[in-house]
Design goal:
single chain; about 425 residues; mainly beta; six-stranded antiparallel beta sheet; five-stranded antiparallel beta sheet; about 35% strand
């Protein structure tokens, strides 16, 4: 990540160099890049000299600047000489304009987070000086990708030695990560992120690492555990999987032969909210009517029935399934329920146990502790915005004393509501 600076920024109290890092108590910049076409000022040149002597890496990109503001010819000539003299320092470099990131890397100026993934991931780093905890926000950018797409897998190497914890911003849970590799100065973590999903990882300096996976041969969806044991969540396939533990041992997981169960035969009750008979009497509240549908598979409301094309409200879904699956002979030890992307909201209940809020880009939960032998019940309550139903009387709506059509001539497009993924 980078920011643009000017000489005025150099006058701020936090603008100093410590251990080769600029603004160590704020952004903690690793290098200062000055492009050849920049215009330098006298205070700016003085600060460049000060920072160079303090061992901050300074990169002149595309050559040395030749434009100076506020200088007479004699002073400008002296400034040029001063800049040239800086290049004799080991921490000052003149490099080509192109491929700056690769050049920085070749000079040993490395990012605190090094991403290797098949999509663009962005990271933001924060450090708590009181607890010595590092926090890194990671975001998988899926701009322009249809909702529910853009899933990406990769690894991130973090310049820290703390023990990694996952901060779940949906449930508030903080749990130790159980798949990572640790070197003298870095922690490397594999991640799979849905499109537009973000996660926060905290690195605790004073926490002792628990038993965790160091290497896998793929096909491992996750792991949870404590100091002495691990529960490994693996993919459904007919291959054995090798995992390597932090205690030096390795384990071979047997093939997962049980196929994925797609929950079907849903009952859907749609509580439709429509406008009161008098649009100008807010105390009447909306009208509420129920419709019931049998769904072999999950579809957006506007594909379930023509009567749901312009409906807003609450959807109550329910279905059942048998456990354990007959093909397993009782050898399956748990299950994950995966709802996929949530368009608006969804509250999921399994056998009466309400699950915590889920990541809306990819909602899934470990429900092994809630399953029982025989029939199991899944219920999902979905709420929607009012956009679809407003389409039916758009020309009657007013906002700020004006008809809605005067502000937005046409109603919003019909949107997909409800559970949209298997």
């Amino acid at each position: 990540t980078y920011e643009y600076l000017s000489p005025d920024n150099f006058a701020l109290p936090g603008a100093f160099v410590s251990n080769g890092t600029f603004a160590p108590n704020q952004q903690a910049f690793k290098a200062l890049v000055v492009r050849a076409n920049e215009t330098l000022t006298a205070p700016g040149v003085a600060k460049l000299v000060e920072y160079a002597h303090s061992k901050l890496p300074i990169i002149f990109s595309g050559g040395l600047p030749s434009n100076f503001s506020g200088y007479n010819p004699e002073a400008a000539s002296l400034a040029v000489s001063t800049i040239k003299n800086l290049t004799s320092s080991n921490n000052v470099h003149t490099v080509p304009y192109d491929n700056l990131a690769a050049t920085l890397r070749s000079l040993g100026i490395l990012p605190r987070t090094s991403v290797s993934a098949n999509r663009t991931w962005y990271t933001t780093w924060r450090h708590d000086t009181k607890t010595l905890t590092d926090y890194v926000y990671v975001y998988n950018d899926a701009a322009g990708v249809p909702f529910g797409g853009g899933i990406s897998s990769g690894t991130i190497s973090f310049e820290t030695t703390g023990t990694p914890f996952l901060y779940d911003t949906w449930s508030g849970d903080i749990s130790a990560l159980s798949i990572y590799q640790k070197s003298e100065n870095h922690v490397t973590i594999p991640l799979t992120l849905a499109g537009n999903q973000s996660v926060i990882i905290g690195f605790h300096k004073n926490s002792q690492p628990t038993l965790h996976l160091q290497n896998t041969t793929g096909g491992i969806q996750g792991a949870t555990g404590n100091a002495t044991s691990l529960t490994v969540l693996r993919s459904v396939d007919q291959e054995s999987r090798d995992i390597y533990l932090s205690n030096g041992k390795s384990v071979t997981l047997a093939p997962m032969l049980t196929p994925t169960i797609t929950l079907g035969n849903w009952t859907l009750i749609v509580e439709s909210w429509t406008a009161p008979s008098d649009l100008y009497n807010v105390e009447l509240g909306p009208k509420r009517t129920n419709q019931t549908f049998d769904l072999p598979t999950l579809l957006p409301w506007n594909q379930v029935s023509a009567s749901l094309a312009n409906v807003s409200g609450i959807g109550y879904y329910s279905t059942t399934f048998d456990w354990p699956p007959q093909a397993t002979n009782g050898t399956v030890s748990g299950a994950i329920i995966d709802v996929g992307p949530i368009v608006h909201t969804a509250r999921v209940t399994v056998n009466g146990h309400v699950l915590p809020p889920g990541e809306i880009t990819w909602a899934k939960w470990d429900i092994g502790n809630f399953l029982r032998r025989g029939q199991n019940t899944v219920e999902v309550v979905v709420s929607t915005p009012l956009g679809n139903v407003l389409r039916t009387y758009w020309d009657k709506l007013e906002t700020s004393g004006k008809l809605a059509t005067a502000v937005v001539p046409s109603p919003p497009d019909e949107a997909d509501y409800g559970l949209i993924a298997p």
